[in-house]
Design goal:
heterodimer, A: mainly beta, Acetoacetate decarboxylase-like, ten-stranded mixed beta sheet, four-stranded antiparallel beta sheet, globular, B: alpha/beta, Aspartate Aminotransferase, domain 1, Aspartate Aminotransferase, domain 2, 3 domains, seven-stranded mixed beta sheet, three-stranded mixed beta sheet, 14% strand
């Protein structure tokens, strides 16, 4: 049985779509961190989601886009750095699977960053020499000219992949104001809470004010099978203030 | 699980330019490669096909017609998603109501089902739609059967006659009854700690941790918790405003590392663990934990909620079984499990217990334990000291061993070594349909899924009691095996 086609969702939370991205590679690792270290970074009325009292979660995302996409590089890479926050459930959209406050995105493609800045109101950082090595599903190394940025490892030898159609929310503190955006994601991925070596984050300017030495255990991993593709639909943002 | 095929079996559709040459006009971009619109269409088609393939993934699921993709939307939501919202209006209550309404409309709401009698091994229930069922009761923790024991009921009635319905005041003010003192004394005698220890009674087991932890530990100090610690311990830690650290479940080495990390600060540290962990049914590794705490000068709290009266030669809990009873700084017990009642207590050094009496706010500002329950529990403590208690303890252990033996060849019961037997069904989205299935087959258990336990480690917990007969244990195991075949979680799946 095929559920209602998400492609017919021309609006989400009353917002029109801006872009459909085809993602060739997509991995997220979420890490536990002392809630006090991230709460100060969140504008009102946002607050960190705490899976356990005193513990917040940061999300580090990696995406490589289809070569025909914005910017036209063969390997357009985007990194995202965000804090998992409580959602805005008043929005007219399916229950969001994830809600984040985006602290930073980064890419090797200035055209892509300019597009994201204009349409998604996301703060961009150009990282020259941004490159990656993707091995088995869930295994990834990313670096740039300044050095290593992250290493994701998947300790689970039998990951479970499921088809998912999910929606999410993000808030961005952009120079033009505080913006709220929504997105949808459709793909076949693994979402797991693994026990074992999930890799590490390296000290790098991408992480800004967060000292990665204080980042705790991996809370959740999400990744596509390799090779695999996902559709990511973004929508216009709404200025909160 | 074997019924989940990796997506790469379906292949990637990003065709190379050479593969696109035979495409019709409009499909190709200017450079002869697939246009972005055509790629989007193909990715979507690939995802649809893969989803269809996953819907009927394996013979065992196909045989029973289980279609994971056809599970209703409500099955894919989890409790945490509707927990809060940043919206000005209380949008979460509307979302939550919509969620539950959808489940009820499907006839699959199997929670909060009223029982029509006491917590006996088989119970009659009536669901919201009027459906009446007789269920094997593996969902309550009346471990030793004292909740419905005639002598306990008689003692409760006698207390009710003498003291009335409620204590009608805070225990610090005017709510302490002679009966409460009697219960305190009986508890200390049960533990053999009359000379050194005191008792702080609470009208809720949850309240013991929520009150005693903030009374013991203060801002700037540390609470170090097992990751699987009960939510009341987590909330007590949060209320203390101390710094909170978590160590890996039942992992003494990780605890050691955590304590070493904060040692240089030279502040008070409280380590919290449990006798029997309610999600996994495993015993706390108390001997190692106590040794580590001693080495680092940390205090230790052990929550014996699921082990008081049941574990240990005399029913003094896992602390007794591990030989560390007198090394524990704060022993937390609840009365809703082995006692079959309600409430809880802290057992600690006498001056500390007295301090908690005054500084545990949820105790000071709550009514004292009600008389009937207090009277009944005094009777329970009388019974557990006799042969009756020893027989019941032996019976629940035998029953639990037999039940684990019946289940473990067919399903994954994880690390269970106690009377809490979790059966892993892994996939969170099965929760509602599985619980409904089990009830309709005649079995009541206790469901746990993310975020209470890790993702894809959903489980139904079955609480074995001393009262279950062997026939009831076998019948329950048969229903579980039937469910495992139907929903595809038979065997040892990935964790």
């Amino acid at each position: 049985m095929i559920p209602a086609a998400p492609e017919t969702a021309d609006t989400l939370a009353g917002l029109a779509p801006t872009e459909d991205y085809i993602i060739d590679e997509h991995l997220n690792n979420m890490y536990e961190i002392d809630a006090a270290r991230v709460a100060r970074l969140l504008p009102s009325p946002l607050s960190p989601k705490e899976p356990r009292p005193g513990t917040a979660i940061i999300n580090i995302g990696y995406m490589k886009f289809d070569a025909t996409h914005i910017g036209g590089l063969a390997d357009t890479i985007e990194l995202t750095f965000s804090i998992i926050i409580h959602p805005d459930l008043a929005l007219d959209m399916p229950m969001p699977r994830i809600s984040v406050f985006d602290l930073q995105i980064a890419s090797n493609c200035p055209v892509f960053l300019a597009h994201e800045d204009e349409y998604q109101k996301l703060n961009g950082m150009h990282l020259p020499g941004l490159a990656r090595e993707l091995q088995a599903p869930g295994h990834l190394r990313v670096w740039d000219d300044a050095g290593p940025i992250l290493e994701f490892r998947n300790p689970n030898l039998s990951p479970i992949y499921k088809y998912e159609y999910a929606t999410g929310q993000y808030v961005s503190d952009h120079p033009s104001g505080l913006h709220q955006g929504v997105f949808s994601w459709e793909g076949i991925g693994c979402e797991q809470q693994p026990v074992g070596d999930c890799g590490r984050l390296y000290s790098h300017r991408f992480y800004q004010d967060i000292d990665v030495g204080w980042v705790g255990d991996c809370y959740l991993q999400m990744f596509l099978a390799t090779p695999g593709q996902a559709l990511f639909r973004s929508f216009n943002t709404r200025r909160l203030r | 699980m074997s019924d989940d095929r990796p997506a790469n079996e379906t292949g990637s559709i990003a065709a190379p330019p050479s593969a696109a040459r035979s495409e019709s006009p409009g499909v190709l971009g200017r450079d002869g490669a697939l246009s972005i619109d055509e790629k989007r269409r193909r990715v979507r088609e690939m995802l649809r096909n893969a989803q269809q393939a996953m819907a009927l993934p394996a013979a065992r699921a196909t045989a029973v017609g289980l279609d994971f993709a056809a599970l209703p939307t409500y099955a894919k939501l989890t409790y945490d998603m509707a927990s809060t919202s940043t919206s000005i209006e209380h949008a979460e209550s509307r979302r939550f109501a919509t969620w539950l309404n959808d489940i009820e409309a499907d006839g699959a709401y199997s929670f909060e089902v009223p029982r029509l009698g006491g917590q006996t091994p088989e119970v009659d229930v009536e669901r919201a739609d009027g459906l009446r069922l007789r269920l094997l009761n593996f969902g309550s923790y009346n471990y030793l059967g004292y909740s419905t024991h005639p002598e306990v009921i008689a003692a409760a009635k006698a207390a009710l006659d003498r003291y009335g319905l409620g204590a009608a005041s805070s225990p610090i003010q005017s709510g302490t009854l002679a009966l409460h003192r009697e219960l305190e004394r009986a508890l200390l005698e049960h533990y053999g700690l009359v000379a050194t220890h005191g008792v702080s009674l609470f009208s809720s087991g949850y309240g013991v941790n929520a009150g005693a932890i903030p009374a013991f530990i203060k801002p700037g100090q540390y609470v170090v918790l097992d990751r699987s610690a009960h939510v009341s311990i987590q909330e007590g830690a949060q209320l203390s405003k101390a710094k909170i650290l978590y160590f890996r479940h039942n992992d003494p080495d990780n605890l050691d590392a955590m304590l070493a990390r904060v040692a240089s600060e030279q502040v008070r540290v409280l380590v919290c663990t449990e006798g029997v962990f309610s999600a996994d049914g495993d015993f706390g590794r108390l001997r190692e934990m106590v040794a580590i705490c001693k080495r680092h000068g940390a205090a230790i709290l052990v929550d014996e909620a699921h082990s008081i009266l049941v574990a240990g030669e005399h029913g003094r809990g896992v602390c007794e079984a591990a030989g560390v009873l007198e090394d524990i700084d704060l022993i937390v017990v609840t009365f809703s499990k082995g006692f079959g009642a309600v409430g809880g207590a802290l057992i600690a050094r006498r001056d500390l217990a007295r301090y908690v009496n005054w500084y545990a706010k949820c105790r000071m500002f709550s009514c004292a334990l009600d008389p009937a329950v207090t009277g009944g529990m005094i009777a329970v403590l009388g019974l557990v000291r006799t042969a009756d208690g020893a027989e019941r303890r032996a019976r629940i252990r035998d029953n639990a061993a037999m039940f684990r033996g019946l289940l473990s060849p067919y399903v994954d019961i994880g690390a269970s070594e106690s009377w809490i037997v979790p059966v892993f069904y892994y996939r969170d989205e099965l929760t509602f349909v599985l619980n409904d299935f089990l009830q309709r087959r005649g079995l009541d258990g206790s469901i746990m899924q993310f975020p209470a336990v890790p993702k894809n480690e959903a489980r139904v917990r079955l609480f074995v009691t001393a009262e279950h007969t062997h026939e009831q244990l076998r019948r329950a195991a048969r229903i579980i095996r039937e469910a495992a075949d139907h929903f595809g979680f038979a065997g040892k799946g990935p964790r």
